[in-house]
Write a structure and sequence with these properties.
Elements lengths: L14 H23 L9 E5 L8 H14 L4 E5 L10 E2 L6 H4 L1 H7 L4 E3 L3 H10 L4 E5 L11 E7 L19 H6 L3 E5 L16 E4 L14 E6 L4 H10 L3 E7 L8 H12 L1
Parallel strand pairs: 1-5, 1-6, 2-4, 2-5, 6-7, 7-8, 9-10
Antiparallel strand pairs: 3-4
Length: 277
């Protein structure tokens, strides 16, 4: 669980980005070798992949949940496949109500509130388990770079404010792979929020590009005029803070934790103390 370095979203010629560029080349070579040595297998049911090209923060999980909701309304029975990031359980299992975030990961529990969810690094095994439990399609939350399972339809999620950062591959930048290579495998792109960086111009005309936004609350006035101490343990906390500001909240203090952070009692008591003050 880490915080994204600030230099990832600055110029390419920033000191740390240049320093780490050789490591980026090595990362790309290792990635290509990994793809070559792993066999791509077919799932017994169609696979829809919701992925991105950068590390975290684009909004994959809410989009995956929205697509699941749409599919269910049209008569499909989708299940989710996810790795269960930061969870202690590594086997391919279904997320159940008695599981803890520490066991299956926080995102898995959120997904499980929408549709049956399977965790595990072996996506093919998870897809077979989903199929045996009445799923007629699966939605992968992340896994676009996973070469072991064939995707029938891949959607790339891009944050309109974050974009592709400095457009360099890890660790010199936030990209998991080059933009060109990633877009070649995409069937559609969704830009979340205002396209402040003119990302749409980078998308080939052959790829459908959609715009989306987050509805933070059904009651848009809920935080209007309120003095707020905001905290977030997500990859791109600025998105959450901006959403509060857009509702008219007065942010007195912004507190950030690492992505997928599991809060303990000490953290909560400290946050309550800050709020009371």
């Amino acid at each position: 669980m880490i915080r994204a370095p600030n230099f990832w979203y600055k110029r390419k010629d920033s000191f740390f980005s240049i320093l780490l560029y050789p490591a980026s080349i090595l990362f790309r070579i290792i990635t290509k070798i990994y793809i070559l040595i792993n066999k791509t297998e077919n799932s017994p049911i169609p696979v829809i992949c919701i992925g991105n090209l950068v590390v975290g923060g684009a909004g994959k999980t809410p989009v995956a949940m929205k697509i699941s909701n749409i599919l269910k309304k049209t008569g499909y029975k989708p299940h989710f496949l996810t790795r269960g990031y930061a969870g202690t359980i590594k086997a391919n299992v279904q997320v159940l109500p008695n599981h803890l975030p520490q066991e299956v990961g926080d995102e898995s529990m959120i997904l499980a509130s929408e549709a049956p969810t399977w965790i595990g690094a072996n996506k093919i095994r998870s897809s077979f388990l989903a199929s045996k439990n009445n799923a007629d399609c699966v939605i992968m939350d992340d896994g676009f770079q996973n070469p072991t399972i064939k995707k029938n339809f891949s959607i790339i999620i891009i944050d309109g404010k974050q974009g592709f950062g400095n457009r360099r591959v890890l660790p010199a930048g936030p990209l998991r792979e080059s933009i060109g290579r990633g877009l070649k495998r995409a069937n559609a792109v969704i830009i979340v929020g205002d396209d402040e960086l003119l990302i749409e111009k980078l998308i080939p005309s052959s790829i459908p590009c959609f715009k989306a936004r987050f509805d933070v609350s059904k009651n848009e006035e809920i935080f209007k005029g309120k003095e707020i101490t905001a905290f977030a343990g997500i990859a791109y906390p600025a998105k959450f803070f901006d959403s509060l500001k857009s509702q008219g909240a007065k942010l007195l203090k912004k507190i950030t934790f690492p992505d997928h952070y599991i809060y303990n009692e000490k953290d909560i008591l400290k946050l309550i103390e800050i709020a009371n003050n």
